[in-house]
Write a structure and sequence with these properties.
Length: about 240
């Protein structure tokens, strides 16, 4: 997980491994800064809050928060969100840090109010299958959720309405992402195909065969995009896609 405050020297990289620790790095120098002590070896996802003060670590039945500004080596979590039955596979934040979202293998996506002293979940969406990936749209209103059954759920957290896309029936969706303009939704499946959807204009682009089994992907604006809207041309849409 990388956090950038606008200057190269301020970019922080967070990594986790199976040694019960989470490490912070100064990314542009590849310099180790300090580490946090994590109470379990498994970390499924990391995310830094928009104000760069806390780091969320999603694991088994818990989301633990660490103080990035702490200078103490080996410090533990300062907050612990629990009440989840299985693995937490995705975590992220509203752009203003008002709430946090998560997805997990208990067939649920959750919204947590980070401003409240009550560390319990405020809202829950039932995906009916284990969640593999989740990402918040740039409009800060729609949570995009992928599951093991091959369904992509677009959940409007304000109205509590949702609709579904199914790229390949019975083929697990490994990962989803949406470009910064909120136009192009990308998903990679267990069969190695990458699907692109224009969520504003309601059409899909022919799938891309990656020739592999990609686990994640990321998107960026198409070249020449000004951020005010996305291209409706498939040739432009594929320019903003990179697989990891």
């Amino acid at each position: 997980m990388v956090s950038d405050a606008g200057r190269t020297e301020s970019i922080i990289l967070a990594t986790a491994s199976y040694d019960y620790s989470i490490r912070l790095w100064q990314a542009h120098k590849a310099t180790y800064l300090r580490h946090f002590q994590h109470p379990e070896f498994q970390v499924n996802a990391l995310c830094i809050t928009p104000d760069r003060q806390l780091l969320a670590a999603a694991g088994f039945q818990h989301i633990r928060m660490y103080d990035i500004l702490s200078t103490v080596q080996g410090s533990g979590p300062v907050l612990n969100y629990e009440g989840i039955q299985k693995n937490v596979t995705a975590v992220g934040f509203h752009q203003d840090g008002k709430w946090m979202y998560s997805g997990g293998e208990d067939n649920s996506a959750r919204i947590w109010d980070t401003r409240s002293r009550n560390l319990q979940c405020q809202r829950t969406y039932n995906s009916h299958n284990p969640v593999t990936s989740a990402v918040l749209s740039p409009n800060q209103q729609e949570l995009i959720i992928a599951d093991q059954a091959g369904t992509i759920h677009l959940w409007d957290v304000r109205t509590n309405q949702s609709f579904q896309l199914t790229p390949e029936p019975d083929s697990m969706v490994h990962h989803v992402d949406i470009d910064p303009t909120g136009t192009l939704l990308a998903a990679v499946t267990y069969k190695g195909n990458c699907y692109l959807y224009n969520v504003r204009e309601g059409f899909s682009v022919s799938p891309i065969d990656t020739g592999a089994d990609p686990q994640q992907l990321s998107t960026s604006p198409p070249r020449g995009a000004n951020g005010g809207g996305g291209s409706s041309q498939p040739s432009k849409a594929t320019e903003g896609l990179s697989t990891l």
